[in-house]
Write a structure and sequence with these properties.
Layout (H helix, E strand, L loop, with lengths): L6 H10 L12 H6 L11 H39 L11 E7 L6 H18 L3 E7 L4 H18 L13 H13 L10 E4 L1 H16 L37 H19 L5 H15 L32 E4 L10 H8 L2 H17 L3 E3 L4 H4 L13 H4 L50 H4 L3 E3 L3 H9 L10 H9 L21
Parallel strand pairs: 1-2, 1-3, 3-4
Antiparallel strand pairs: 5-6
Helix pairs in contact: 3-4, 3-11, 4-11, 5-7
Length: about 500
């Protein structure tokens, strides 16, 4: 057996081998000397890549849509901004339009208000417009408000006064304000005013209110219970009434009523037991709740759709009614409709562009046209030349109100695609409702339909809108804002080292 070399020989052999190079410090040594952690750049894991790609894509889509939505709104605001710069007389009132809003079926009024503030109001403000608003929290409020407004106008022009309740009488405040304006010499703007209707459900009530106001009576029709005449099939009473005794002493009915009430009060005070303080407070709260103003009862329609042909036009009706503009109000509810709602949320720029174009046409008010009638198309042999109306069983109309055949007027199909998104509450039957404006089909009387007008944008304004890129000239980029904040404004006449110098160098 070979003998092992001694330990000294092995150590000497190790010392003779070349020394291995020292290990390099992991990371940047400069960062280590500064006390910073060792940051190594590497590709994220699979889960992080999925998360970042989904959130980044959605965020980019939202920012892209928001940018182009503001760009579209700025374009239409620039189209009407010249109207705000025109001089206006001090003895005149600005042009005032009427805006009709109502809560979508199954939703609150806030949805319509938010849509108005986001898409409609910026263009109106840019054109220096003034407006009145008729709102409806439930079905039929807009119809009742518009019909009452038309009836007040008819009473004023025909010189009639109301004989109904205080709610039907014209407001004293409005008359007082108008009298002050007349005494000072302030006049309203002559010419086109215009109406703006938001949503298909509001448009149905708007059309129904026009027909009720111009074709209906000025006074509410008598209800069957209020009529004094007895029914025809009621049996006549054969009993004779006892003759009045003229010699009997006359008694004052008021005095007898007062004495009876005093006796009853005394009896109650004697029999009542003192109640504890808790019950008294509850009774006071109940009395306060009773004293609170109740929601005003909605007035029923003064006429029916079947009475349109037999109604007479009032002498105060103008040859052409105020033009109107109908704007879309997309509103869909339900958890299962979430994909549709997300798609609409990411494509609001198209809605802003379409809405801005229609509102700009209303603000400029340079071009109006009549609504088209489909009578010629209805008499043609091709049944598919115009869309058909729904069946009576689907719309809830009686056989007298339904006109078979294709749609006769263009107003009947405005924003009709919104009905498929309505909540099912709009189609349900309710006890005691003889007429459902949202569910029923739109009925157009030819004498009213031919007087209706709508706004549209002229060719010149359309070309001017196409040339406008929607960029705000006063807007500045992020880097320009940073340079102004630091003081590095780009001025070629001033050298870089001369920034910050104030005054003349010769002084």
């Amino acid at each position: 057996m070979s003998e092992k070399p001694p330990i000294e020989a092995r150590n000497a052999a190790k010392d003779a081998l070349p020394a291995s190079p020292p290990k390099m410090a992991a990371g940047n040594p400069a960062f280590q000397m500064m006390g910073l952690p060792n940051i190594r750049f590497k590709l994220p894991s699979r889960n992080w890549l999925i998360f970042l790609s989904v959130t980044g894509s959605f965020t980019g889509a939202v920012l892209y849509d928001r940018y182009h939505k503001r760009k579209a709104q700025r374009r239409w605001c620039n189209i009407v901004s010249h109207l705000a710069q025109e001089p206006f007389p001090t003895t005149g009132l600005p042009r005032r339009i009427t805006i009709f809003l109502s809560a979508p079926p199954g939703d609150s009024l806030r949805a319509a208000r938010d849509h108005f503030h986001e898409y409609v109001k910026p263009v109106l403000v840019a054109g220096a417009m003034d407006w009145d608003v008729i709102e409806g929290r439930r079905e039929g409020d807009v119809r009742a408000g518009l019909a009452e407004k038309i009836r007040k106008r008819r009473r004023k022009e025909e010189g009639r006064t109301t004989t109904g309740t205080e709610e039907e009488k014209p407001g004293e405040d409005e008359d007082l304000v108008q009298a002050i304006r007349d005494s000072v010499g302030i006049k309203e703007t002559d010419g086109i005013q215009g109406d703006l209707v938001l949503g298909r459900n509001t448009w149905k009530e708007y059309v129904r209110g026009l027909h009720e106001g111009w074709l209906g009576p000025l006074e509410p029709p008598l209800v069957a219970s209020e009529s004094t005449s007895p029914p025809a099939d009621a049996p006549l009473s054969t009993e004779k009434q006892p003759p009045e005794d003229s010699a009997s002493p006359s008694t004052d009915p008021l005095q007898s009523i007062d004495s009876a009430t005093q006796d009853s009060d005394q009896e109650k005070a004697a029999t009542e037991t003192p109640k504890p303080e808790g019950e008294k407070e509850k009774e006071k709260e109940k009395e306060k709740e009773k004293e609170k103003p109740k929601e005003p009862v909605q007035k029923p329609p003064y006429n029916k759709t079947s009475e349109y042909p037999s109604a007479r036009l009032p002498p105060s009706i103008p040859d052409t009614l105020q033009p109107s503009t109908v704007l879309p109000l997309p509103n869909i509810l339900g958890f299962l409709n979430t994909p549709i709602r997300i798609y609409r949320f990411l494509n609001r720029r198209h809605l802003a562009n379409d809405t801005g174009r229609e509102v700009a046409a209303l603000v400029i008010a340079s071009h109006t046209q009549t609504w088209e009638s489909h009578e010629n198309l209805a008499s043609s042999a091709d049944p598919d030349s115009s869309p058909t109306i729904p069946d009576a069983t689907q719309s809830g109309l009686s056989s007298a109100d339904v006109v078979p055949g294709p749609r006769r007027w263009e107003q009947e199909g405005v924003q009709q695609e919104e009905e498929k998104d309505w909540h099912k509450i709009a189609w349900q039957d309710r006890a005691g409702d003889e007429e459902r404006t949202w569910r029923d089909r739109i009925i157009i009387e030819p004498r009213i339909g031919e007087r209706m007008r709508r706004f549209y944008l002229g060719d010149e304004d359309r070309e001017r809108a196409e040339r406008d890129d929607g960029v705000d000239p006063s807007a500045k980029s992020f880097w320009q804002g940073m340079k102004e904040m630091v003081g590095w404004e780009e001025d070629l006449s001033v050298k870089g080292w001369e920034h910050g110098l104030v005054g003349n160098e010769s002084e």
